[in-house]
Every structure is written in structure tokens, then in C-alpha cells.
């Protein structure tokens, strides 16, 4: 049921690959709440995914964007302003890739060239997005920018490898740029730390199935689903959260603040 939380608002969604992705679910939720959407992804991801299916479903244009390219980012935001006839009200940054993890390299033996690319795609891209929007005045007053992150930015999850470093940088950029953008145009910038979710990208992490079961046992409310994450993001795009900025917001069923649960203890005692 729609509550029209985003009626009249315009937004850009990065990273909708397929129906499993949080960006995909968020685009649908935003559309259902009355928003007009523009979709974007890297050209290679667009070829691999099903973004055209989503675009047709929510009547959204697609603008390709390599987030490591200054020119592509400028082109994306320029075209968004042209399409919408002005600035946007919200943006979701749902972008991440680890070349070292793809190559099977352990954290203690990462290739630093790959690592630089990982950081550029997964974290510095948020700075590039915000800096370009800042210069173009592409985000309307009281706008909202969200980036998806994970608790591995604060705690050690060995198999999350170099992506943990990337998420830590991502969160730092959100805080720092959030300060500057708040002063310029009251734009708020936050990160959302979601439960492990069975997305196409998340499922590629080593030991993912075992970990998602562990997280379920460690979360008093259970793991938050991708659908519920999308609904949470809608509230953070809405005018009901206008004074929330520079925060890392956990959406994880209580996992982040739970030391141990009875379910985990019972499992260990078997």
C-alpha cells in the first residue's frame, strides 16, 4: 500500500542489476511511493543484468555511467537535470566491486593495482558523485543521498577482505561530504548498513551461506530483507527524516549491537 511518501520527488538509482538487488527493490518502492526515477549502472553491468526490464516496469530512463569516470558522472547528472527539468531530490549509491575477491586473492596478498580500482569503484565514486552534483547544483534543497555499506567497515569479517576497507572509506566520505553539502544546500548524506542479503553480488562472498545463517541467529529480529531495506531507504529519502545526516544507520535486525544470543550458544553447545 502506497503512502505517497515521495510524491512529486525525483531520484537517481545506481546499481540495479537484477530482481535480487536492493537497488532494484528500492527503485520499485520509490516508484510506488510516487517518485519519478532515473536508472543508471555501468555499461558492463547493464549488459549482464536486466535493467531494461525494470526501466519498463517503472517507466524510467536509463543513463549508462562508469562511476570511475569524471566525464561519465558529469554526463549522467547533466542528463538527469535535463530530463527532470532541474535538480533531483534523492540519490541511491548502490555500487561495489572487489577485483581481488574476484581473483581469489586473500587479504594478506592483495594486488594493489586491483585494490586501487576497488576503492575507486566502491568508495571514491561516492565522492565523485557528490562533488559533481555539488558543482552542478544537481541536488535540490533538503535532498537526500544514501550509500549502501556493511558492518565490516567497523568489525573484522575475514572473508569480506578489501571490501571492508572500501566500506570504511565510503562511510568517511559520506560524513565529510555530508557536512559540506548540508552547509551548501541542506542536502543530507548517510550510509545504511544492511543485513547480509542474498543479492547477486553478496552471494559471491566466500562462505556467504554459512554467514547469513549465523547472522540470522545473532539478530534478535532476524536478518532484514532486501524488501524491508528498500522501505527503510524510502523513509530516508522522504521529508520525515530531514535532519538525519552524516550517519551510518544500521538496518540489520539488531545484529550490530548484539554480543551473543541464546540461539548461537545452543548451536555451539551441540
Biggest sheet statistics: 6 strands, parallel
Under the CATH scheme, which architecture would be assigned?
Answer: 3-Layer(aba) Sandwich
Number of helices: 10
Strand count: 6
Helix-and-strand structural type: alpha/beta
Question: Which properties best describe this structure?
Answer:
alpha/beta
Polypeptide structure, described:
With 270 residues, the chain is α/β, with parallel strands linked by helices. It has one domain (10-207, 224-259): Rossmann fold (3-Layer(aba) Sandwich). It is built from 10 helices and 6 strands. It has a 6-stranded parallel β-sheet with strand order 2-1-3-4-5-6, sandwiched between helices. Helix 1 runs parallel beside helix 3, helix 1 crosses helix 9 (226-237) and helix 6 packs parallel to helix 7 (162-185). The relative contact order is 0.14.
Indicate the topology.
Elements: E1 10-14, H1 22-32, E2 36-40, H2 43-48, H3 51-58, H4 70-84, E3 88-93, H5 99-102, H6 112-136, E4 139-149, H7 162-185, E5 188-194, H8 208-218, H9 226-237, E6 248-251, H10 262-268
Parallel strand pairs: 1-2, 1-3, 3-4, 4-5, 5-6
Helix pairs in contact: 1-3, 1-9, 4-6, 6-7
Amino acid at each position: 500500500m502506497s503512502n505517497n511518501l515521495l510524491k512529486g520527488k525525483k531520484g537517481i538509482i545506481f546499481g540495479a542489476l537484477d530482481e535480487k538487488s536492493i537497488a532494484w527493490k528500492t527503485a520499485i518502492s520509490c516508484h510506488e511511493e510516487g517518485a519519478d526515477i532515473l536508472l543508471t549502472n555501468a555499461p558492463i553491468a547493464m549488459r549482464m543484468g536486466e535493467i531494461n526490464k525494470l526501466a519498463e516496469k517503472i517507466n524510467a530512463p536509463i543513463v549508462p555511467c562508469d562511476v570511475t569516470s569524471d566525464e561519465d558522472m558529469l554526463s549522467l547528472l547533466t542528463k538527469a537535470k535535463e530530463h527532470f527539468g532541474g535538480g533531483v531530490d534523492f540519490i541511491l549509491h548502490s555500487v561495489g566491486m572487489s577485483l581481488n575477491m574476484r581473483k581469489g586473492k586473500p587479504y594478506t596478498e592483495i594486488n594493489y593495482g586491483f585494490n586501487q580500482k576497488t576503492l575507486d569503484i566502491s568508495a571514491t565514486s561516492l565522492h565523485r558523485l557528490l562533488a559533481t552534483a555539488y558543482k552542478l547544483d544537481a541536488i535540490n534543497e533538503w535532498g537526500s543521498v544514501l550509500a549502501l555499506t556493511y558492518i565490516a567497515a567497523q568489525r573484522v569479517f575475514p572473508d569480506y577482505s578489501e571490501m571492508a576497507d572500501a566500506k570504511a572509506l565510503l562511510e568517511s566520505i559520506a560524513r565529510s561530504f555530508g557536512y559540506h553539502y548540508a552547509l551548501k544546500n541542506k542536502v543530507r548524506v548517510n550510509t545504511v548498513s544492511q543485513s547480509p542479503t542474498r543479492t547477486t553480488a553478496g552471494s559471491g562472498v566466500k562462505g556467504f551461506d554459512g554467514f547469513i545463517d549465523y547472522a540470522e541467529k545473532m539478530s534478535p529480529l532476524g536478518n532484514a530483507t532486501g524488501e524491508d531495506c528498500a522501505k527503510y531507504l524510502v523513509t530516508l529519502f522522504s521529508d520525515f527524516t530531514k535532519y538525519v545526516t552524516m550517519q551510518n544507520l544500521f538496518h540489520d535486525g539488531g545484529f550490530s549491537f548484539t554480543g551473543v544470543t541464546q540461539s548461537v550458544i545452543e548451536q555451539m553447545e551441540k
